[in-house]
Amino acid sequence: LGSISWADAIHGPALGAAALLLPQPPATVLISASGTRLDSMPYGTHPLSDSLMSTSQTSFRHYGIETSRFAKTALVAESAEALECLHVCWRSESDRNCGRCLKCCLTQMALDLLGKRRQATTFRPERYSLGLVPTLRVQTHDGLNYMNELRVEAMARGRDDVFSAAAEFLAANHRDARLLASSRWHRRVRKWRNSIAKRQLTAARMLRALRRWEGSNRAD
């Protein structure tokens, strides 16, 4: 599994496995959508694939695809308790957020637009920098989609500083994103072709073995 992308393929099944491994699996499991219908694409969670993990006792549902990520962040920001324990960072390996990775920057930009950044105490205020944003590189289309949401929201709210940072990020990552999509597509096609070739080889070997077995039976 080391060569398979966590974001592209694994995180949805991992969430499903965690639910099914509970001593008493719930009747319904909601897997939150990573985006909306407008930006839905092959990903680790998807409205067409999450329900396939359902069993006779547990139903899986792809939830919240009608709501944008910014709107979800706004909903979380309404709760003081949620802001006090908000954790999005996978780098820090602690209960604090590093404040410098893309996920941290996206979340802080959203909270900044909502006027709630200072209330999110799991982020260190001094680490927030819009100047850092254009230097970050995206690894998935999910990050590009969310940054574009923030760009639109910043423009609507008259936040030229956030708008500029988001626009510069998108411009810098546009070419990289096309190359990323192309390289991933070619890797998937190559894996698919290799898989087909292996199956064909296995089938050919089985056919040869069957013919040898039939030949030996005739000789007997």
List the helices and strands and how they pair.
Blueprint: H1 6-20, E1 28-32, E2 59-63, H2 69-77, H3 80-84, H4 102-114, H5 141-156, H6 160-219
Parallel strand pairs: 1-2
What does this protein structure show overall?
23% of the residues are buried. Helix content is 54%, strand content 5%. Strands 1-2 form a two-stranded parallel sheet. The chain is built from six helices and two strands. With 220 residues, the chain is mostly helical. Helix 5 runs antiparallel to helix 6 (160-219). It is elongated, with a radius of gyration of 23 Å. The chain has helices at 6-20, 69-77, 80-84, 102-114, 141-156, 160-219, and strands spanning 28-32, 59-63. The longest helix has 60 residues, at 160-219.
What's this model, at a glance?
With 220 residues, the chain is mainly α.
Strand content: under 5%
Overall residue-averaged pLDDT value = 83
Strand line-up across the major sheet: 1-2
What proportion of the residues is helical, as a percent range?
A: 40-55%
Structural class: mainly alpha
**Order of helical and strand elements:** HEEHHHHH
Helix count, DSSP H or I runs of 4 or more residues? 6
Oligomer: single chain
Query: Which ranges are low-confidence, i.e. pLDDT below 50, for 5 or more consecutive residues?
Result: none
**Biggest sheet statistics:** 2 strands, parallel
Shape, please?
Answer: elongated
List the main descriptive attributes of the protein structure presented here.
single chain; elongated; two-stranded parallel sheet; 220 residues; mainly alpha; 6 helices
